[in-house]
Specification:
By secondary structure, the chain is an alpha+beta fold. Among the domains are: 150 residues, Calcium-transporting ATPase, cytoplasmic transduction domain A; 250 residues, Calcium-transporting ATPase, cytoplasmic domain N, CATH 3.40.1110.10; 218 residues, no CATH class. The chain has 42 helices and 36 strands. Strands 14-33-32-31-15-27-30-29-28 form a nine-stranded mixed β-sheet, with helices on both faces. Strands 17-16-26-25-24-23-22-21-20 form a nine-stranded antiparallel β-sheet, with helices on both faces. α9 packs antiparallel against α10. The longest helix has 39 residues.
Length: 1220
């Protein structure tokens, strides 16, 4: 079908008839057969290469060619060959990568047995087996697993950059297949599902098996790129393969990115074509006039060729002749030289030891060689948060318990060596990696402080963490979020060890004593509630409710007697927040048995309600979550990567704006923005855009604009006047103050759909920093494209997961963080490294150097070619416009390819205007690249004018020098060959001196390339004009003895010196006068800050301490909560109970025996006949249908309810996991 995919398990014949691709991936472009034709086709799509190919054919026409064809063929062949070799090497690497992936092994079910096969041979409908820690081969529908209830745990770091585990669950009907190969071989389920798409969190389908239909969703799909964790094995049927998998769909096609410099070069080459055509037209007109007035009457000495019938025909032929002669105005080696320069500067990035991350043995890598100079022009950086700015590692740093603060303040971290680490050796179950630096908290625990014990008991009970103990005493926690894991680990180290759980018990080890708590209910987290609670029965038969959540929510639920303690704790929370810590309040309540029985009955009724179920549950939760007693607050550090705040401060000084685009919640994103110095405490304001309709969002944006720049809302404002014009470009505006902007994904979507994008962009661009939270991958790309569309700036996107790939590809430059969070972002990036702070070195050092080198190269390259070519133009006026060349043919062939190529490449690879220390100490130097000041259309016109002047000097000075001149022996030297030798020697001296003046960083290699090339020219001169070659090949080498005779004359050397001096004087004057009259940032730095720079080089200045200002009006509550709603219900339903080893079973049996000695709580409503609780879904409203009886557990409450039934629904509809 055009709208859905159909497949059947274990039926390759059927699925192959649909033409689904196999599981092989291909990122390479060529193979052995198509490389040559395809590569040549791509190269000749470049305008310059096609132009020179046409010239080769023109030079084969004797009527118009005055140059040998080898003068164009040789350079063209060299250019094409170098480019082809480079493309072949790049594609060979892609082939090797594809081969490695496609040849991984996988277990495939074939004829009732498991056989090892290669990934590339897997097809849609195959059943495969995955083992623990194996990468998922293709997108597969989970059939069964080693865990109870068909659960499987996967790590999705490769897809979304998150290292916490995700839970997948098979349908119960397929989970019954278990690992029985006979049953799996006979499984013939038919699947109808979505067509391949790039939506990572979307999948819908229907499984038809044994006449029944079952709804499928993304919770039952294992995606390629995920890694199976904590699951011994699982089986799945392949749904999507190879290019159809969501991983490859997100990777998309490789986007060819062109730099602004490339676009400028294309425009300039067209200008040069136009100038060339005009010059040739002028010469052709001149030739026609000369032929009609002089040449026609001079045919007795210069007879016309047979094919020339008139001066018009002759002028037409001369036009094409000069197209050939002046072809060097369009430099054939320009593009290949640019590629070589980019390649060389890419190696500098790869070789940079200061961007090498030793812990992961990962160097920085330039994955493309076409964008280097654009690194020096970046204006906007779009960054992911988790795994990019942060390490996605949470650490328990501080806490407030009963009004007392414990833990080390962030400002003391640099003195950490002076503080003694807490010794947890008294606790055999402690995590050895946990660090804490305040011994007073341990002393409080050991002394039996009631509030401290309750605080840690709350942390060890109120969570959804799963515990694994494969080796006795070695606990491994699998948390849904890293902050949950940090809290439970902290409680574990202080003596309150969460050891195991079942659906209705939690086993604890408290200060060495094993205790079992009966889990009565979990009041699950939601984005509205911003809290979670658990109700437990203690071994002492006491009912307790423990609650943790956002302080803004918990404060409203506290008992009135906690007022004083609340005020003190809120002050502590303010301190924690200003340190950039994620805060969480902890409270508890003792419950009366009678009250709880009544509440439990209300909960059952609310949960089983058919209408307004969520609202009724919230009301029931609020009845019990009140009159809480405050225990304290936690402060977790979402650990930033090294030197992130310092990096962002440095980039801000370079006028680079940082926007954070994250899928995380607003509180966390804002908190990280302050921690990273994107937002600062002393800012004039932070605007929150949270509207959900056009009117609200428009009002919020206009209010923000009015505050930042009041005149910007007036129609008379220049910005508002120019915006209706086309093309629409949003100009830079300077706000009156420093502001920040926070916008969520829903508001952003409304703004983009309701034509508020320009309003949004104006506000965002005036802000110091922008935080976009709750973003989808598509929205990340849309934000980048919005800036690209309306701002003439270079954008850079940096991320670490597959959900950042669209953003990375949308930006001008994509940077991938390689390391812990997967490889997809890195594989789709242009540059990659392991730490965010390497970005400042990539931009401010390598980017700025490469940009400056490229600009110097282009200026000099165009100049030397104009000087070389325009001499022919002046000479035309003295040879009757007869297409006679000034230079020897061999000089024409070697000028760009040999004589001047190495000096200009040396300049482009080794030159530095300032060293790396200056570049990092003075980020302001970076601004020149952002405004493209070093090479633009104006600079190009300067090159043209300078070239015209120099060519004029190089032609007329030698001509006037040898005109009517004689040698010392009285012989005439005013011949063509001597004149040609003087002009080309003067030209070589001039271009050598010009490049020497442009060089600001001299090395041994610079001297060797610049002066060595000039020396090589003279060596080649005597070789090519030697008697031997000229006598052996008189038709090819025609300047017999010219070098030996001419260069011995003094007046000729005086001519060379005079020409060189006259050509160099404007450049020297410009170098001295420009810093005085038109200084740029680098000139100002060199003049005013030299003593400071030298001091910084000797004594590096530590980062300044920034005073934190408390702002109660905008206190941040980045509560440490990143759960998925419904997770608690899965636990209490028993579906998270994992199959355990014999040792763990023994421990659980012992725990249950302990429970028998205590009074068991019985629910007031022991039995009830309820219709509509489904078997394979959790926390979902029931639907009507035919009911088949089976015992079930009510999600959210623990304990069995006899008579509660599950239903199998007939027909379509219902919730996930239903049998439709």
């Amino acid at each position: 079908s055009e709208n859905e995919r159909l497949l059947q398990a274990n039926n390759r014949e059927l699925t192959s008839s649909f033409g689904y691709p196999d599981n092989a991936i291909k990122t390479s472009k060529y193979n052995a057969l198509n490389f040559l034709p395809m590569n040549l086709f791509e190269q000749f799509r470049k305008l310059a290469n096609a132009y020179f190919l046409v010239l080769v054919f023109l030079q084969m026409i004797p009527q118009i060619s005055s140059l040998a064809s080898y003068t164009t063929v040789i350079p063209l062949m060299v250019v094409l060959s170098i480019t082809a070799v480079k493309d072949a090497i790049d594609d060979l690497k892609r082939h090797q990568s594809d081969h490695q992936v496609n040849n991984r092994s996988v277990l495939l079910l074939v004829d009732g047995r498991m056989e090892e096969d290669k990934w590339m041979n897997v097809q849609v409908g195959d059943i495969i087996k995955l083992k623990n820690n194996e990468c998922v081969t293709a997108d597969i529908l989970l059939l069964s697993s080693s865990e109870s209830h068909g659960l499987a745990y996967v790590e999705t770091a490769e897809l979304d950059g998150e290292t916490n585990l995700k839970v997948k669950q098979a349908l119960s009907v397929t989970n019954d297949l278990e690992d029985n190969l006979e049953l799996l071989s006979t499984f013939d389920g038919e699947i109808k599902c979505d067509l391949p798409n790039n939506k990572l969190d979307r999948f819908t389908g229907i499984l038809t098996y044994k006449g029944q239909k079952y709804l499928l969703d993304h919770d039952k799909l294992l995606l390629r790129g995920c890694i199976l964790r904590n699951t011994d094995w699982c089986y799945g049927v392949v749904v999507y393969t190879g290019p159809d998998t969501k991983l490859m769909q997100n990777s998309g096609k490789a986007i060819f990115k062109r730099t602004q410099m490339d676009q400028l070069l294309n425009v300039l080459v067209l200008w040069i074509f136009l100038l060339l055509a005009i010059m040739c037209f002028i010469i052709a007109v001149g030739h026609g006039i000369w032929q009609s007035k002089i040449g026609y009457y001079f045919q007795i000495f210069l007879p016309w060729e047979n094919y020339v019938s008139s001066s018009v025909v002759s002028a037409t032929l001369i036009y094409w002749s000069y197209i050939i002669i002046l072809n060097t105005m369009v430099p054939i080696s320009l593009y290949i030289s640019v590629e070589i320069i980019r390649l060389g500067n890419s190696f500098y990035i790869n070789w940079d030891r200061k961007m090498f991350y030793a812990p992961k043995n990962t160097p920085a890598q330039a994955r493309t060689t076409t964008l280097n100079e654009e690194l020096g022009q970046v204006k906007y950086v779009f960054s992911d948060k988790t795994g990019t700015l942060t390490q996605n590692i949470m650490t328990f740093n501080r806490c407030s318990i009963n009004g007392k603060v414990y833990g080390m303040h962030n400002c003391h971290k640099r003195l950490i060596k002076k503080y003694k680490k807490v010794d947890f050796s008294y606790n055999k179950l402690a995590n050895p990696n946990f660090l804490f630096y305040d011994n007073t908290l341990v002393e409080a625990v050991k002394s039996g402080d009631k509030w401290v014990h309750l605080f840690f008991l709350s942390l060890s009970l109120c969570h959804t963490v799963m515990s694994e103990e494969k080796v006795e005493g070695e606990l491994v926690y699998q948390a849904q979020s890293p902050d949950e894991g940090a809290l439970v680990t902290a409680a574990r180290n202080f003596g309150f060890v969460f050891r195991a759980r079942t659906s209705d018990t939690i086993t604890m080890v408290e200060m060495g004593e094993t205790k079992v708590y009966q889990l009565l209910a979990i009041l699950d987290f939601s984005n509205v509630r911003k809290r979670m609670s658990v109700i437990v029965r203690t071994p002492e038969d006491q009912l307790l409710l423990f609650c943790k959540g956002a302080d803004t929510i918990i404060c409203e639920l506290l008992h009135s007697s906690c007022k004083d303690l609340t005020n003190v704790t809120m002050e502590h929370l303010d301190d924690f927040a200003t340190e950039g810590l994620r805060t969480l309040m902890v409270a508890y309540r003792e419950l009366d048995v009678t009250f709880f029985q009544a509440w439990r009955h209300k909960h059952s009724v609310a949960y089983l309600s058919l209408e307004d179920r969520e609202n009724k549950l919230s009301i029931v939760y609020e009845e019990i979550e009140k009159d809480l007693m405050l225990l304290g607050a936690t402060a977790i550090e979402d650990k930033l990567q090294d030197a992130v705040p310092e990096t962002i401060i440095t980039l801000s000084k370079a006028k680079i704006k940082i926007w954070v685009l994250t899928g995380d919640k607003q509180e966390t994103a804002v908190n990280i923005a302050y921690s990273c110095s994107i937002f600062e405490e002393d800012m004039d304001g932070v605007f929150m855009v949270q509207g959900n309709n056009y009117e609200t969002i428009c009002q919020e944006l206009r209010t923000a604009r009015a505050k930042m720049k009041p005149e910007s809302v007036l129609e008379s404002d220049p910005t508002n006047i120019c915006l209706p014009m086309k093309p629409k470009i949003v100009p830079d505006e300077v706000p009156k103050g420093r502001y920040g902007l926070v916008i969520n994904g829903y508001s952003l979507a409304c703004a983009l759909e309701e034509n508020l994008e320009l309003e949004l962009l104006q506000v965002a661009c005036m802000c110091k920093g922008v935080i976009c939270c709750r973003m989808t991958p598509l929205q990340k790309a849309q934000v980048v494209q919005l800036v690209k569309r309306y701002k003439k700036v270079v954008t850079l996107a940096i991320g670490d997961g597959a959900n950042d790939v669209s953003m990375i590809k949308a930006a001008h430059i994509g940077v991938g963080i390689s390391g812990l969070e997967g490889m997809q972002a890195m594989l789709n990036s242009d540059f990659s490294f392991s730490q965010f702070h390497y970005l400042q070195r990539l931009l401010l050092v390598h980017g700025r150097w490469t940009y400056n080198r490229m600009c110097k190269f282009l200026s000099f390259f165009f100049y030397k070619n104009f000087v070389f070519t325009l001499v022919h133009f002046w000479y035309a006026f003295y040879n009757g416009f007869s297409a006679q060349t000034v230079y020897d043919s061999w000089f024409i062939a070697c000028y760009n390819l040999i004589y001047t190529s190495l000096p200009v490449l040396g300049l482009s690879l080794f030159d530095q205007d300032v060293n790396e220390t200056w570049s990092l100490c003075f980020p302001e130097l970076y601004e020149a690249g952002q405004h493209n000041l070093s090479f633009n259309k104006k600079k190009f016109m300067d090159c043209v004018l300078h070239g015209i002047y120099s060519s004029f000097v190089l032609f007329f000075v030698p001509m006037w020098t040898i005109c009517s001149s004689e040698c010392s022996d009285g012989k005439d030297i005013s011949d063509f060959q001597t004149f040609s030798l003087i002009v080309q020697t003067s030209l070589m001296c001039v271009v050598t001196m010009q490049i020497a003046l442009k060089t600001t960083y001299w090395t041994v290699m610079s001297h060797l390339l610049i002066w060595g090339s000039l020396g090589f020219y003279f060596c080649m001169l005597f070789l090519l004009y030697s008697d031997g070659l000229c006598l052996m090949f008189p038709n090819i080498f025609q300047f017999l003895g010219v070098a030996r005779n001419s260069l011995s004359e003094t007046q000729l050397w005086l001519s060379v010196v005079l020409s060189t001096v006259l050509c160099v004087i404007p450049t020297v004057g410009y170098i001295f006068i420009k810093p005085l009259l038109f200084p740029v940032s680098v000139d100002k730095v060199g003049a005013r800050q030299l003593p400071r720079i030298r001091h910084c080089m000797k004594y590096p200045v530590p980062p300044p301490k920034r005073a934190r200002l408390k702002r109660p009006s905008f206190r941040r509550s980045a509560y440490a909560f990143s759960h998925q709603q419904g997770f608690g219900a899965i636990i209490t339903s028993g579906k998270m109970t994992k199959l355990r080893s014999k040792k763990k079973d023994k421990l659980l049996r012992k725990s249950h025996l302990m429970l028998v000695s205590h009074h068991r709580f019985q629910a007031s409503s022991q039995t009830s006949n309820v219709e509509g609780v489904e078997r394979d879904s959790v926390g979902l409203p029931p639907a009507r249908g035919r009911v088949s009886s089976c015992p079930a557990r009510l999600p959210g409450l623990s304990g069995s309810f006899q008579g509660v039934t599950c239903e199998a629904l007939v027909g379509r509809g219902g919730s996930r996991g239903e049998r439709a």
